[in-house]
Amino acid sequence: MIVKRILVVGAGPAGCSGAYSASRLGAEVLLVDIKKNIGEPVRSAELVPKLLKRTVDFKPIQTISNLVTVLNGKEYVVSSPAYMVDRREFDRHLVSLAIRAGAKVSMDTKLSFNGNETLINGIKSEFDFIIGCDGPSSFVGRHIGIKNMDFMFGIQGEYVLEKRLEDAYIFLDKKYVYGYAWLFPKGEYANVGLGISLKYSRESKRLLEGFVKMLVERKYIVNDSFITHTSGLIPCGGILTPCKNNILLAGDACGLAHPITGAGIAYACESGILAGKNASEGSAEKYKLEIMERYHETFERGRRKRKFLKENWNNFDETIRKCWPCFEEYNK
Fold first, then answer.
1. Fewest CB within 10 angstroms: 126, 186, 214, 306, which?
2. Alpha helices (runs of H) in the chain, residue ranges in sequence order
């Protein structure tokens, strides 16, 4: 058996999962990231479906029982078993699994391309496969002409809760253009944030301040003092072409964040594992088939819903019921 040399770019959930998967199958894996530290900065709402435990073992901060969607002051409660995770610890746990499986990890490392040559910190290196897991604005994806074109802008702070909550909350309002606001509890704290169309990102800080003020008034959180603050892009245009020649894309780099909700951690882990497996087996085309078989229907529906959402946003109440997953109209 010929051992495959695989470069994995990006040490987030997709990259760490891909490195782990490929290493377990005997590949020689180098995992690189331009960042200095694993799991930093955190750009995540940190909510994952409970079913992710079947794919990746991890230690949650808190169990979530229900997803409560608030629209026009009315609460719609849907059973939605999930976990809150600490993304720093989650990512570090995943990279430890990859290292134990045999992967080599190099942080603070620059990747570049010179035609078909791959350079690591300026030194020519050869690999059988490259797996791009380097986020929404993937450098690897752009190198092969595959890139996300549609984005949400997410902004979030960590606040102290008035009391512990067992449910996660979604707030739908016309002012959060093409997006929504959230409160996701994690022990005595909560991630409070919102996602809106990138076109209106300049309004995000003002909108978050207003949302936080409302949560204080309704006694969800103690006050408007935040502990941490973060922001970033969320791809929402649907699945991209998963591979070209010997280069595979996974996670956000492949557009694998749900076009309506923006959820992406579980998709990142799953697609990373598939990418690592298929690269180690020498089959990029099989990876493409598996990604499309697993995700095409869900993401195509989400893409169509997002298109409808944008075209009909002014008719908000009717439109949001057809486009938000907790409502019966979503599946019609």
1. 126
2. 13-24, 87-101, 139-143, 204-217, 265-280, 284-311, 316-323
Looking at residue 147, its amino acid is K
Please state, for a pLDDT cut of 90, what percent of the chain lies above it.
Answer: 97
DSSP-assigned letter for residue 134: -
Greatest Cα-to-Cα distance within the chain, rounded to the nearest angstrom = 64
Beta-carbon contacts of residue 301 (< 8 Å; ≥ 6 apart): none
Q: Which residues pair with 185 in a beta bridge?
A: 190
Residue 9 phi, psi dihedral angles, 5° rounding = -110, 115
pTM (2 d.p.): 0.95
Token pair listed for 118: 């791959």
Q: Which amino acid is residue 58, in one-letter code? A: F
Which residues have a Cβ under 8 Å from the Cβ of 277 and sit 6 or more positions away?
21, 22, 25
CATH of 5-43+86-149+237-307 among 2.40.128.590, 1.10.760.10, 2.60.40.10, 3.50.50.60: 3.50.50.60
Q: Which residues pair with 105 in a beta bridge?
A: 31
Cα 238 from Cα 114, distance rounded (Å): 29
Strand order in the sheet with 168-172: 47-49, 74-84, 62-71, 168-172, 180-186, 189-197, 151-160, 229-235
Token pair for 147: 């890139």
Q: 212-255 pLDDT, tens per residue?
A: 999 999 999 999 999 999 999 999 999 999 999 999 999 999 99
d(CA 115, CA 263): 34
Question: Distance between CA atoms of 10 and 141, rounded to whole angstroms?
Answer: 12
Q: What is the DSSP string of 101-114?
A: HT-EEE-S--EEEE
Helices and strands (DSSP H and E) totals, the chain: 7, 17
| Cis status of the peptide bond prior to 41, with omega within 30 of 0 | yes
Return d(Cα 164, Cα 161) in angstroms, integer.
6
CA distance 250 to 8: 10
Sign of the torsion angle spanned by Cα atoms 221, 224, 230, 234: positive
